[in-house]
Amino acid sequence: MTPAQDIQFSEMSYDQFLTDVETIASAVERDPWVPDYIVGIGRGGLVPATFLSHRMGIAMLSIDHSSKVHAFSDSLLVHLAACTQLGEKYLFVDDINDSGKTIARFRSLLIDNGGLADNVRFAVLINNVRSRETVDHASRNIDRRVDKRWFIFPWGSVATRAMQEQDAREDPERLSL
User: Is residue 149 assigned to a domain?
Assistant: First the structure.
């Protein structure tokens, strides 16, 4: 492996995580748009969504994306799309908006199934400004053109370094490896 292919692991402290959650909660509270539900995007968005749910007193739902069992997640997104037509509002939460693939998939499934875009928002702890998708709320922004760190969130710190590296290399587009 050449030095250019080395992964720069960056561990997020628990205190930084709490600061990021508070930043998002405060931003959402300043927004006149109020979600009826917070939706954690599994796997990385579940912990931040849980903390936001408790912090804001808003019920939480979850949709698993990391397992790649699309029949499961897709049916839930179709259901939520129908609920947006009834006026329900959903704040989807993930750990990072990196390439934008997850957010694009969720938005597409919601809109393609009649979901109302005005009733859906996205929030992340870390947002790549070069992502092909935008988010409504982010605690911090990075530019993947210059920032190649692979973020280890507190819940991911229990994984072995080999598993962390496997996750980082799963989609070469994210870190330009």
Answer: no
Domain range for 72 is 13-142
Domain contains 169:
no
pLDDT in tens, 110-151: 999 999 999 999 999 999 999 999 999 999 999 999 999 999
- Read off the CATH number of the domain in which 60 is found: 3.40.50.2020
DSSP for the chain? --GGG--EEEEPPHHHHHHHHHHHHHHHHHSS---SEEEEEETTTHHHHHHHHHHHT--EEEEE-TT--HHHHHHHHHHHHHHHHTT--EEEEEEEESSSHHHHHHHHHHHHTT--GGGEEEEEEEEETTSSS--SEEEEEE-TTT--EEEE-GGGTTS-HHHHHHHHHSSHHHHT-
Confidence check: pLDDT of 74 > 50: yes
Whether 156 is in a domain gets the answer no
Residue 29 lies in a domain: yes
